[in-house]
Specification:
The protein has 266 residues and is of the alpha/beta class. The chain is 31% helix and 23% strand. The chain has helices at residues 49-53, 80-88, 100-109, 126-132, 158-167, 185-196, 225-239, 246-252, 258-264; strands at residues 17-21, 24-28, 34-39, 70-74, 92-97, 119-123, 138-143, 168-178, 201-204, 212-217, 253-255. It is globular and about 45 Å long.
Length: 266
């Protein structure tokens, strides 16, 4: 797990607040922006569409290894991915969250359990944690880092993405949520591709809310279409009831635009 991260001491974090509507509980950071959601009667279901798409890494993993290994989340949100990896997939799960009020809110309101044999929730700065983490320890890395203004990713440079790649074991996969009025898909995707290589980066079409999920891999070979379709059907058979429309993801996945690839070789 690398060196132990010390709890963040800084003060003045935006307080976690919540709202509820039509059976769904929403997490906010003292603003109207939704940081995460949970259907109250189905806490293990992935409620938000972009959170569902953050699980698209499953398409790039062999069915026999689908839930094997260590999953890390940078940014806890309402703990949806953390709960799913821990409770449903039964993976070794680590979540890194800088705001202590978010961790407290997730434990009080969003069914996040205390740390156990499979779960470690760390109150730390994601950039510092990644820089000090043991390399090649993760098979899955989910990156969703936004502050209370939700204008653009908090961490979005090549050094950070290089640290993320170093965290991944060979065959490991990262998903990144890109959203916000100041976010630029082309800018962020170019930075990711410079680190991972253009043949190891894909994206899903944006959600109607404007979230674009990028998938980046370390040394993954993309299987034939027929194998991807088998994997998608298997994912839906196992986890469709939790909100994973994997066959839909296949229709949404695309390689990097040529405009970005050309910049890599300029």
């Amino acid at each position: 797990m690398g060196r132990d991260a010390k709890p963040v001491k800084r003060q003045g974090w935006a307080p976690a607040t919540l709202s509820e509507y039509d059976g769904v509980r929403f997490l906010h950071l003292d603003s109207i922006w939704v940081q995460g959601a949970m259907r109250i009667r189905k806490p293990q279901q992935l409620e938000l569409e972009y959170i569902q798409r953050m699980m698209a890494w499953m398409l790039w993993r062999d069915a026999a290894e689908l839930s094997a290994g260590h999953a890390i989340q940078l940014g806890l949100g309402a703990a949806a991915i953390t709960r799913f990896c821990h409770k449903v997939l039964r993976m070794q799960t680590t979540a890194v969250e800088i705001n202590p009020t978010v961790i407290a809110a997730c434990r009080a309101w969003f069914h996040l359990p205390e740390n156990d044999r499979l779960l470690t929730v760390v109150n730390a700065d994601a950039a510092e944690w990644v820089a000090n983490a043991e390399p090649q320890q993760a098979q899955v890395l989910n990156v969703d880092l936004y502050d209370h203004e939700a204008a653009s990713p908090v961490l979005d440079d090549e050094n950070f993405y290089a640290g993320c790649r170093a965290l991944l074991a060979e065959g490991g996969l990262m998903t990144v949520n890109l959203f916000g009025r100041d976010a630029s898909f082309a800018r962020s995707a170019l930075r990711i591709a410079r680190v991972f290589g253009s043949d190891q980066v894909w994206s899903l079409a944006p959600t109607k809310e404007g979230n674009t999920v990028v998938v980046a891999a370390r040394g993954v070979r993309v299987p034939e279409r027929e194998e991807l379709e088998r994997r998608a059907a298997n994912i839906e058979a196992l986890y469709g009831g939790h909100g994973l429309p994997a066959r839909k993801w296949l229709r949404l996945v695309r390689p990097l635009p040529l405009s970005i690839v050309n910049q890599l070789h300029a």
